[in-house]
Amino acid sequence: MTTSMNNFQFAPLRTLNDFLLESARFQLPNFGDFEKWGNRVVKNLLYYQTNYFVLGCIELIIIGLFQPVKIALGMASIFAVIYALLMIYGPNQNPSVQQFQSVNKYAVLGLLLGIAYIFLYMFDAVLLVLFAILLPISSVFIHSSLRLRSLKNKLTTTVETIGIKHSPMGQFLEAMGLMPDTFQ
Predict the structure, then answer these.
(1) Which is nearest to 48 in space by CA: 175, 166, 162, 167?
(2) Distance between CA 98 and CA 180 in Å, rounded?
(3) Of 21, 29, 105, 175, which cross-links 37 as Cys (Cβ 3.0–4.6 Å)?
(4) How do residues 153-162 score in pLDDT, each as one tens digit?
(5) Global confidence as pTM
(6) Rounded to an integer, what distance in angstroms lies between the CA atom of residue 24 and that of residue 152?
């Protein structure tokens, strides 16, 4: 399933009135019917995908503006831990790395302990990065779960059925196996 960038069709940005304000209707989903709830979430993800992207960018920018240094330090410490673990225990180890590990076991242990210390020292920054990542995801899920679909939403989704698989959210949902039955 490869799609070139010129085949992507981005969904239009929906109005703020439709997305949040006057014409928007919200209701708790029926927690007993997961299929209906999942269908509502998927169709709202497809219909409001551009709005969700903009909302996520705004939330990331706001968090980044309040704590830019901590975000940078948190991301650096996360990348350092991942890089060190991949270098030491990764599947494609270099022969020189394997030789270094066998000769200098204590140096490797010291390196791991040093990186673990830095990670724990920067743990508040790491948590801030995780919050900055999870806030947009959770706000999108909450909105798509609570937002009732209007007649305009249903008609537009039906009309855009052909082009929806070529949108970024359509590609993501299709890769995850979450496309509703009407789109397959």
Answers:
(1) 167
(2) 48
(3) 29
(4) 666 665 555 5
(5) 0.70
(6) 11
Report residue 92: phi and psi, to 5°: -105, 65
Q: Kindly report the backbone phi and psi dihedral angles of residue 26, in degrees, each rounded to the nearest multiple of 5, phi listed first.
A: -120, 145
Give the separation between CA 131 and CA 162, rounded to whole angstroms: 36
pLDDT interval class at 39 (50, 70, 90): confident
**Which tokens is 12 given?**
């239009």
CA distance 133 to 63: 10
Asked if residues 55 and 136 have their Cβ atoms less than 8 Å apart, the reply is yes
Is there a contact between 139 and 55 (Cβ–Cβ < 8 Å)?
Answer: yes
- Give first-to-last CA distance, the chain, whole Å: 14
